[in-house]
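Field log, afternoon session.

UNIT: design team B
ACTIVITY: writing a sequence onto a fixed backbone
BACKBONE:
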């Protein structure tokens, strides 16, 4: 699977975990050169506290388009060390 935004591959992996319709990619598959840390945090009742990255691709920013759970709850342990995408990022085989 590939995560793509503005024609650029952000992450590429055959090892994704699907939770609630979202593909979670291994964190190591994400291109670090395309992300910036974000101060945003949200809470999911069963997954825990999410943190975010902002995409920066060719000078275009997509705030908080990547999320992850640094310390997921036990019910979501399968997404530890993984990232997911939204806000216009497409997931393709």
């Amino acid at each position: 699977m590939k995560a793509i935004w503005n024609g650029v591959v952000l992450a590429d992996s055959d090892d994704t975990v699907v939770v609630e319709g979202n593909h979670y990619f291994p964190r190591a598959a994400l291109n670090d050169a395309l992300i910036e840390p974000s101060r945003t945090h949200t809470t999911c009742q069963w997954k825990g506290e999410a943190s975010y990255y902002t995409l920066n691709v060719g000078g275009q920013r997509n705030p908080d388009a990547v999320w992850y759970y640094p310390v997921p709850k036990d019910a979501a342990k399968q997404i530890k060390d993984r990232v997911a995408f939204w806000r216009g990022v497409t997931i393709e085989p």
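LOG NOTE: Strands lie at 2-5, 8-12, 17-19, 22-26, 35-44, 48-57, 60-68, 82-85, 90-92.
NEXT ACTIVITY: expression trials, pending approval
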